[in-house]
Amino acid sequence: MKFPGKRKSKHYFPVSNRDPLLQQSPPESEQSASWVVGIDQTLVDIEARVDDDFVRRYGLSLGHSLVIEDDVAEALYQELVRENLITHQFAGGTIGNTMHNYSVLADDRSVLLGVMCNNIEIGGYAYRYLCNTSSRTDLNYLQGVDGAIGRCFTLINEHGERTFAISPGQMNQLHAESIPESTIAGASALVLSAYLVRCKEGEPMPEASMQAIDYAKRYDVPVVLTMGTKFVVADDPQRWQTFLRDHVSILAMNEEEAAALTGIEDPLLAADRALEWVDLVLCTAGPQGLYMAAYTEDEAKRQTRQPLLPGAIAEFNQYEFSRAIRRHECQQPLRIYSHIAPYMGGPEKIMNTNGAGDGALAALLHDITANRYHRAKVPNSSKHGYHWLTYSSLSQVCKYANRVSYQVLNQHSPRLSRGLPEREDSLEEAYWDR
Ligand SMILES: Nc1ncnc2c1ncn2[C@@H]1O[C@H](COP(=O)(O)OP(=O)(O)O)[C@@H](O)[C@H]1O
Ligand SMILES: Nc1nc2c(ncn2[C@@H]2O[C@H](COP(=O)(O)O)[C@@H](O)[C@H]2O)c(=O)[nH]1
Hints:
Blueprint: H1 20-24, E1 36-39, E2 43-49, H2 52-57, E3 65-67, H3 70-82, E4 86-91, H4 94-106, E5 110-113, E6 115-117, H5 125-131, E7 137-138, E8 143-145, E9 150-156, E10 162-167, H6 181-185, E11 189-193, H7 205-218, E12 223-226, H8 230-234, H9 237-247, E13 250-254, H10 255-262, H11 267-274, E14 280-284, E15 290-297, E16 323-325, E17 333-340, H12 356-377, E18 388-393, H13 394-409
Parallel strand pairs: 1-5, 1-11, 2-9, 3-10, 5-7, 6-8, 11-12, 12-13, 13-14
Antiparallel strand pairs: 2-4, 9-10, 14-15, 15-17, 16-18
Bound molecules: adenosine-5'-diphosphate and ligand LQESDW3C.
The ligand Nc1nc2c(ncn2[C@@H]2O[C@H](COP(=O)(O)O)[C@@H](O)[C@H]2O)c(=O)[nH]1 binds near residues 43, 45, 166 and 356.
């Protein structure tokens, strides 16, 4: 486990081999002590530059992610090839991206559950998917299928707006029997997306996801849900609110999804509303940066040393230096909030916004898993007087998530090609004040 950042003395976690305390503990086994599990629809992103007429001609709707039939997909693909419009092809899928990015950041194991072709052709989509996934992402539990994985046509117009057309192939054929109970039991988090319910009648993916949620609840593993797109939420916000309350601990969304879910446009107020259902909220807001909202133990709250921020909740960041805890672990829960503007004001030139939110979530997962790892290694540390959810304060997690989003915006693929540069590892240094 690579820690989310080198710490000043008060937070310092000894990861160096020379540390005598660590030398007392048994050597790390090949199999990592901490991991996250995600379920996804196995998808390859096929990115192309198109005009709005193209989007209309194929019955798509600008800015939406829609599922298309095989014949439409074939015609669309043939036109992209004929007109030479394809610019990039990457492994994709919102949770696949998150697991990959987590493994790159933590230099540690994530487990991806989903389907994979039984017969893989060199150069084919399945082959590309595997080649473009971190070697730290454990793919041993993928379920074989006879047929193709999914394709996500990512159509980008002249204003940079993305329209997704999903050709599902066999991506929703994951069965409940393919969900490994013990792998979920030992995980730091189970990560799902709202896309998993977007299936045809009778497809097994929703049941497989519910099986995974049941296991997670059985072993008190936090369930993380990312909203995917506002259109999935907008179909039935009430149903999602109930789903969150019944099954989810951590919610990741952008401000549009937040508005669709809660009916509240202000991301801070929407995140606050969502705390009625979940323990922690990550709400990205494009050029506005990102918000987090969570619970802390009142007795252990910590005052911020940053300027107090105005907003719909006055001075909302007052206790952002506190660590997050799940509500049911609190004696006296206190709501805490934090916000950060885009790192360095955002990149000079955004290469691609694809996956910026997934990147932020990967950083949050890294912090949560680091906390569990530290608790297992140094259980009597003063850092574990309470059963915290995060290793760092809400403010630190915001910085880290924001930094990772910036990295994704600076490259074409939604998947990080490398970790953050070493010299930036300290999240508390003046670096952040530049
Ligand atoms: N136009 C932008 N300028 C600066 N930063 C941006 C911009 N768009 C996104 N970001 C950064 O990326 C993060 C995630 O972006 P967002 O578009 O909200 O995610 P999603 O991919 O889930 O829609 C934001 O919190 C912000 O830090
Ligand atoms: N599992 C699914 N992933 C999907 C679907 N439609 C799009 N996507 C993936 O999202 C990311 C981009 O993420 P974003 O947070 O920037 O919107 C991209 O890589 C797509 O593969 C879907 O229906 N299911």
